[in-house]
Design goal:
heterodimer; A: alpha+beta; Immunoglobulin-like; 3-stranded mixed sheet; 9 helices; 12 strands; B: mainly alpha; 17 helices
Chain lengths: 352, 560
């Protein structure tokens, strides 16, 4: 290889690869199969962000092509060649007109971007709340989510149920958020951007999923050992399904153990152990608030903030030693014998 | 290139006496010479670069595949806390101060810094801070246990740092280490500002300062303003933890958001404190290897000062998701976007400097070209992040991690490597190997792009930062594997670099005092420069004193 060829190879490799990769990355992302893809929006806030982001991508891509292209051209055109005269090139110290041009043009771009951004900020943050909106209180805990439905007297954990919102007749869900301990962040990428959940402060955001389904997300602000397994699940349901869910959640906990003596014994074990200090089971003496409400535990798909499936096996393992499944979880191992473990598991699986 | 530059003095090396090793060590520990202190800063920072890099490598092994059990969550959380703290406070700052210490007096024709003893104090106090941080691995839980390092993240958001959530002493080691590093930084910044204002040689008017010196002036002035709030916040946090005050104690009415403001009013200027010296290196290296004067010197100075000022009013763009409300968000969107204007001016001026030049692709210049493209991309992803609604999706995701590593590694570390290759002959009197340098460049470039280009994607697919593991099925796994593979190339590149650094010291080609045919004053004295730098105080008549000497028929002083 000649020296000159090597130089060209060097110069060309950099920007070409950068540009090609860039296009590839974003094109790849847009089509990627991911339940948390921000470019696959399912609600108004996430939609308006995708719209804005496309504008920003186009502007930045244009800047990259122009400036990167000029840079590449300059490197190729003005490289030192072996036969060049040993004299120094002409020394040019600057030009006020040119400086002015590349100050004013970026300012115009900035103003355009700024005004567009401002519009989306105000649309998202200052839109008046419709009267039909559903209110939910979100409380972040190390390392799980508590959801309260003040209008319905429902308390649940980790799986947020909301009705879908018809764009013609919107019924968004307004989330009033605070934290019981440290700062967390509520992020379900397909529905909306994230909002921090901060102790001693109330933040609000709204979501309006338009298609029924489960939308995934997770805590986005580092909150301690198990930040990674503080997952979010939003169940968007048709108005009828949502109403049925609310009705079922409003009931007190199951107390009918006919034909299931193990569960009846499990209830006794549960109510005579430290479980009740941290957990609530509505209608019993268990009224603790430190851990998730268990009144309808068996109606949930997952345990440990979405990190494991809610099966009797997993539930038993969890009660035996939570840290074996989620190291750093704040629930202590209860040191129960096998008999009591079976009984408690049987009891908890009746809490539909 | 002109091959004979007038040397301002000759040094008779035969007078040097070989001394016992103990005496040499004693001299280094007690030295107040700006060059020796600068080198100690750089050596110390290199040590922490390797340590911090090793931590990053462990994290990448853990994240390469989903549900990995390579390290425990506790260890992982310590790793990212230590990696961030180390790289910002004990790698970035000392490294850049080291270069500043070494170069600023030489470039303004001074014989030392304004306060040599303060200089030594600042170095040793910062060095002690780094040792204290790492001692936490042994003493973090207190005197009774094996100990542990801090695990609160490098920006240590309240109230995770409160006694209730962070028992033991690990957070205290973090607090004190950052506090000490802050004291050292303020000392050195004060020194650099005073030196630049008071110690310039004859004829070195402010309008003739090399751009490197201007940037160090702006950077050091920013240190005064930015580091103060951080240091104050560390004191408040310690009072919260030990005296029962409630600045950040949310259980007693304190404010978590207050900590964020304190931290980021330091944290964002800090980014510019780190990147301005990188600009400084580019400003010196690009003209020399393009064989042209820098284009638009006054605009470059104005842009640097503008960046300095504007960067003090953009901090809350780290807090778009805190719920500041539309008015607050809008203000910080504007301030953040505006800073792209002076930054753009810099890129355009570098482009214009190259334009019409005669570009020599030596290793320092290759790293600068890497810088130019990568900094351009980093700036453009920065614009994406400045758009607050977009940031609501991107903040605290791997997209942000990729963006700021593009700035810190793609721009700053590349510029730094360029600076190493460029000034090594001045410091040691020997050239670094070009062949090894090219291996270093290509390996590191490939590793960098594999890691940090592909790291953007999991962020766009909803992957938050600081998670020790993730489940399969979210579309993140393949990307994370590529990112981790890139880390291996980076390690190989760094290994080439360190080997080159050591080997060239003993076996490198002997360099004369001006191997690059450059134009600033440091190249006028011998390599390595003697104590007190210049036997006779130099006199300058333009921004490029050595150009004037080499081209008496067409000196710069005619045009300024």
């Amino acid at each position: 290889m000649t020296k000159s060829f090597r130089q060209i190879a060097f110069i060309s490799a950099l920007p070409f690869r950068s540009a090609a990769w860039w296009v590839f990355l974003f094109a790849g992302t847009a089509r990627a199969k991911s339940p948390t893809n921000i470019f696959d929006p399912a609600g108004t806030p996430a939609h308006s962000i995708v719209g804005l982001s496309m504008l920003v991508f186009s502007v930045t891509a244009a800047i990259f092509l122009i400036v990167g292209g000029l840079l590449l051209y300059a490197l190729l055109r003005f490289r030192h060649r072996p036969g060049d005269s040993p004299r120094e090139p002409a020394q040019i110290y600057g030009s006020n007109q040119i400086e002015l041009a590349w100050t004013i043009i970026p300012i115009l771009i900035v103003v355009m971007l700024f005004l567009t951004t401002t519009r989306v900020i105000f649309i998202t943050e200052s839109i008046p709340k419709p009267a039909r909106a559903l209110d939910v209180t979100v409380i972040g805990h190390q390392f799980w989510w508590e959801y309260r439905y003040p209008g319905f007297g429902v308390v649940t954990a980790n799986e947020l149920h909301v009705p879908i919102s018809d764009p013609a007749n919107p019924r968004p869900t307004y989330l009033k958020m605070s934290s019981a301990d440290v700062t967390h962040s509520f992020w379900v990428p397909r529905l909306a951007g994230k909002m921090d959940v901060i102790p001693n402060r109330v933040n609000t955001m709204w979501i309006d999923p338009q298609v029924p389904g489960i939308y995934l997300g997770q805590c986005a602000q580092y909150c301690g050992t198990q930040h990674a397994k503080m997952l979010l699940r939003v169940y968007a349901q048709s108005p009828e399904d949502f109403a049925a869910w609310i009705k079922q959640q409003q009931k007190p906990a199951n107390q009918d153990f006919t034909g299931n003596p193990v569960a009846a014994e499990g209830q006794t074990v549960f109510l005579h152990n430290a479980c009740i200090n941290c957990h609530t089971v509505a209608g019993t003496v268990a009224t603790g608030h430190f851990g998730p409400d268990l009144t309808h535990l068996a109606s949930r798909d997952t345990l440990a903030s979405g990190s494991i499936q809610n099966t009797p096996d997993n539930l038993r393992k969890w009660i035996d030693d939570p840290s074996s499944m989620k190291p750093g979880a704040l629930m202590p191992p209860m040191h129960l014998n096998d008999h009591d473990l079976d009984a408690i598991t049987a009891y908890l699986t009746t809490l539909h | 290139m002109a091959d004979s530059t007038p040397v301002m003095e000759g040094i008779d090396h035969s007078l040097a006496v070989k001394r016992p090793r103990l005496e040499v060590i004693y001299e280094w520990i007690t030295t107040v010479d700006h060059k020796k202190i600068g080198l100690m800063y750089v050596g110390y920072a290199l040590l922490f670069l390797v340590i911090g890099g090793f931590e990053a490598l462990l994290m990448r092994i853990q994240l390469a595949v989903p549900n990995n059990h390579f390290v425990s969550p506790e260890v992982f959380n310590r790793l990212f806390t230590m990696h961030g703290t180390t790289m910002v406070f004990f790698m970035g700052m000392p490294m850049l101060f080291g270069f500043g210490n070494y170069l600023v007096p030489l470039m303004i024709g001074a014989r030392d810094m304004a306060f040599p003893r303060l200089n030594a104090f600042s170095f040793w106090i910062s060095a002690f801070g780094g040792l204290l941080l790492y001692f936490s691995y042994f003493g973090g839980s207190g005197l009774y246990g094996a100990g542990s390092a801090p695990d609160v993240g490098w920006f240590a958001y309240a109230p995770l740092t409160a006694k209730a959530f962070s028992p033991g002493h690990s957070t205290d080691y973090w607090t004190l280490a950052v506090f000490l590093s802050g004291i050292g930084s303020i000392g050195t910044a004060l020194n650099i500002v005073t030196t630049i204002i008071c110690m310039r040689c004859k004829g070195m008017k402010m309008s003739r300062l090399p751009l490197l010196v201007w940037l160090y002036l702006v950077m050091s002035s920013m240190v005064f303003i930015a580091v103060g709030p951080l240091t104050a916040a560390q004191i408040m946090l310690t009072l919260d933890r030990y005296v029962g005050s409630h600045f950040f104690d949310t259980q007693a009415g304190g404010s978590a958001v207050l900590w964020m403001h304190y931290f980021w009013i330091f944290g964002h200027p800090e980014v510019y404190i780190l990147v301005l010296p990188a600009f400084a290196f580019i400003n010196e290296i690009v003209p020399v290897f393009s064989r042209k004067a820098i284009f638009g010197y006054p605009a470059m100075v104005a842009a640097s000062i503008a960046i300095g000022f504007i960067s003090l009013s953009v901090w809350a763009h780290h807090m778009f998701t805190v719920g500041l409300g539309p008015a607050g968000n809008t203000f910080f969107v504007f301030a953040t976007m505006v800073i792209s204007v002076p930054t753009g001016i810099k890129i355009f001026n570098w482009l214009a400097t190259i334009w019409g030049g005669s570009i020599h692709f030596a290793v320092p210049m290759m790293f600068c070209i890497g810088f130019l493209f990568q900094f351009l991309i980093a700036g453009l992803t920065g614009i994406m992040l400045s758009v607050a609604p977009f940031d609501w999706q991107l903040s605290a995701s791997y997209f942000v991690v990729a963006h700021f590593h593009y700035v810190l590694v793609g721009a700053i570390v590349f510029a730094l490597f360029g600076a190493f290759y460029y000034w090594y002959p001045k410091v040691t009197g020997r050239m670094m190997s070009e062949t090894l340098g090219k291996w270093h460049f290509w390996l590191f470039l490939i590793g960098f792009h594999l890691t940090f280009d592909f790291m953007h994607v999991p962020g766009l697919l909803g992957m938050p930062r600081r998670i020790y593991t993730y489940e399969a099925g979210r579309g993140w796994e393949g990307w994370n594997l590529i990112v981790s593979i890139g880390a291996i190339f980076q390690v190989a590149g760094i290994a080439c670099f360190v080997f080159n650094l050591v080997r060239s010291y003993f076996r490198g080609k002997i360099a004369d005092h001006d191997p690059w045919d450059a134009w600033t004053l440091e190249w006028a004295t011998s390599s390595p420069p003697p104590s007190y730098n210049f036997a006779i105080e130099p006199t300058v008549h333009s921004r490029r004193p050595l150009w004037d000497l080499k081209h008496p028929e067409d000196p710069d002083s005619d045009y300024e």
